Amino acid sequence: MSSLERALARAVSVEDLRRMARRRLPRLVFEFIDGGAEDELTLADNRAAFERRRLVPRVLVDVSAPDPSAAILGRASALPFVIAPMGSCTLAWPGADLALARAAAAHGIPFALSTMATIGIEQLAEAVPGRLWFQLYVLRNPDANARLVARAEAAGYEALVVTVDLPAGGKRERDLRNGIAIPLRLSGRHLIEGATHPKWALGMLRGGMPEFVNVRGLLGDEGAGLTIAARVGQNLDAAFGFDDVARLRERWPRKLVVKGVLHAGDAARIASLGVDAVWVSNHGGRQLDGAVAAADALPRVAAAVQGRAEVLVDSGVRRGIDALKARALGASAVGLGRAVLYGAAAGGEAGVRRALEILAGELTLAMKLAGTPRFESVDASILDSSRG
Ligand SMILES: Cc1cc2nc3c(=O)[nH]c(=O)nc-3n(C[C@H](O)[C@H](O)[C@H](O)COP(=O)(O)O)c2cc1C
């Protein structure tokens, strides 16, 4: 066993992996991943909304063989998890997109590739035989969107996830203060940070400067020095609306997911357009600071969707029991963002596998202790209603 493998094996929680990530990464990279917008109210609320909820366990139930599997987009998944799309994740570990996708496939769960990934759509599909979804940020250039969608279709992606909560980049103040920008430029300060985190710096040097290969030449080169969020936001179509989702529904023949929904009214309208899943998310508190916590929005969204589409949720999942709570609040599965990215930062693919192993172990233990042997049968009756 290498020293990294030993260190990963010693990590018993996602928080342990987060601490490892914090040690390994230069501060500006760790804060880019860990941070949220403005005062980080929504970021904190995402956790609080899961933590506040309590379950009322059932007893005298046969929990000798708990089954955490779930149907996700109509197909069986070994665990009720999806790896959420994360752009620029290669900053955490060289080739993190691939590491995340491979670990997802090994655990039998879907992986969503971000528009802002640093691996090609086709290259990933060739390298990973698992369930792949492509996340689309709708660019202002319609031809570019059409090309991205056509490439994902040709490469056999199972689902298109259109993210709708980024009409502009959130105001992420840590990134502004740290001067993390694209194109990535190394200032003297960044070089010092690299020198004090040699393992990370060496990895980056070997991997070469990360590039958003799927949108090469499409983000413009004006406004250099913007934060990653601002740069991305500047190039997205802020006029994208319900009619556009309907058109996308006509054009895309496979599963369609709309990500970044919090309002029940929006969820009802989106469900009526024939999408396959509504993904409740506030982008991990990285966009509107002051937006409702995802777990708080979830029951109202699920009620509005009325079973016409699946309901996924992310933003704040850090424990296996969070998936159980999310199920009780109306979701069919949860998206994992930072929880797995901390793992990638701590140890690449092995770190992501460790994160998934920890979360899966916690979930099956919680199912046993709560007396809920089948994840899919969990409903609101397990929630302590006095705690919301
Ligand atoms: C570093 C990072 C990059 C992200 N990039 C994207 C992206 O490219 N597309 C997208 O739809 N969401 C993106 N997200 C949001 C995630 O998909 C997900 O909604 C969020 O991480 C969930 O919150 P959590 O990390 O607190 O669980 C990103 C999140 C992080 C942390």
In summary, what is this structure?
The chain has 388 residues and is of the alpha/beta class. Helices cover 45% and strands 11% of the residues.
Characterise this structure:
With 388 residues, the protein is an alpha/beta fold. The chain has a single domain, classed as Aldolase class I (TIM Barrel, Alpha-Beta Barrel), CATH 3.20.20. Helix content is 45%, strand content 11%. The chain is built from 16 helices and 10 strands. The chain has an 8-stranded parallel sheet with strand order 3-10-9-8-7-6-5-4. A two-stranded antiparallel ribbon has the order 1-2. Strand 9, helix 15 and strand 10 form a beta-alpha-beta unit. The model has no long low-confidence stretch (mean pLDDT 95). The site of flavin mononucleotide has 25 residues, from helix 16.
